[in-house]
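Example is below:
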Amino acid sequence: MSEPQNPAKPRPPLPEDDARKNDQDLAREEKFRRLIETGLEPFPHRADPTHTVSDIVAAYAASPRETLEASKTRVAVAGRILSLRPMGKAAFFHISDGRSKLQVYIRADIAGQEAYERFALLDLGDHVLVRGELFRTRTNELTVLAAGCDFLAKCLHPLPEKWHGLQDVELRYRRRYLDLIMNPEVMEVFRLRSAIVAHIRRFFDERGYIEVETPMMHAIAGGALARPFITHHNALDIDLYLRVAPELFLKRLVVGGMAKVYEINRNFRNEGIDAAHNPEFTMLEFYEAYRDYEDMMAMTEELLGGLSRALLGADEFPFGERTISFKPPFKRLKFMDALAHYSGLSRAIFEDPAAVIAYGERLAPDKKPLTYGRALDIIFDKHVKDNLVQPTFIINPPKDVSPLAKAAKDNPREAARFELMVGGMELANAFSELTDPAEQKLRFEQQAEERRKGDDETHPIDLDYVQALEYGLPPTGGEGIGIDRLVMLLANRKTIREVILFPLLRPKE
């Protein structure tokens, strides 16, 4: 244990005992008081490890006993204590950096009697810095023989024993720090998430895209058909919306001459919460001039296939009980063909808009679709989506639910658009962007009329965006990919809460 230090000023007392504390909490507080009384700094400013636990395990896991004895490799390694086995004047314990574990052996005759007595005041969960030589025990376990052990932080509450098996799984999300401590596989999910985002950035940077940041607060909640969150700016005395999508600002940049742009950032939608939806989520959106949605399909296949191979080592990966393949080419299926194939409805019903709207209302009485296209969307969600496990481009959906997309070349009632479905979820959405300002204004007006009739998931009129189009948006392909759902797929997690560090939860009373 490190040498005593004289604090410059008295330490504030620990919080008074209250009803929330149990005997173990109180015992830990008492040990902490005794530790402070020895003169140690209870909240040190820094530590100086030479290695991480993972560094040591990676570098020396295969080193035989004789090699370690000959090299006398000295390390200083920091970690959290995850197990303790005291044995009189000696003890074994394990420390972890959140990814790997390493055994430490401390003896009073090597570390010193005073230091060992201070060590005896430590608990599971405490942070320490261990200094010593690497060796192997009689059971051949890689171990640090501690010449010193510095105290770094106190864990004032006992760690949970069976955290992953708790029936109240929300408690893992509320106290994500404990989930990360107790479940190394959870830490790996978020390491994978970080690697996915880094790979995506490299992909677009290497192709000449510019990464940009666009506003999070909008005067008009545009870019997607979704209900927004509303906030208020006091100084300007105006209501603003948390953005539902960055699309319209990114396309303004294309008008301005940024021919290739992308953004990875948060969107906010004031809607339901389920296995695939969280009110705040992360999206990748990218736009490229002189391209269309066919080009976006090819780029999506290239991005996802390369991502899987680079991070997982293969095109195929498990998702639940299924195996998904990101090997190109992905299947392509027209929206209306998918409806006819999976819904069980005759093609004749789709020629009767009133019947389709009535059927859509029976499927989702809370949504009450007012248009043919909206009803088709509901039928797709109820009958088709869950069947699309392997990557499938659903192309040319109805134009009236695609107000920002060009009409398809071969059918003016359809949009030049695709949705990529994987694992029963929408993973991506892309358009040949609508570039005609007069047509865009008309589409906005049609959406406004639907809003007046009661549809609150329509696109508002944004005349400033129309004016931007009047300066000339070249042919452009654009796409959004849900980062959270992509992580769900590659990490084999069935709920979005498993891949967001701090998902939104109902406050506890």
About this structure: Residues 184-206 form the longest helix (23 residues). The chain is about 35% helix and 25% strand.
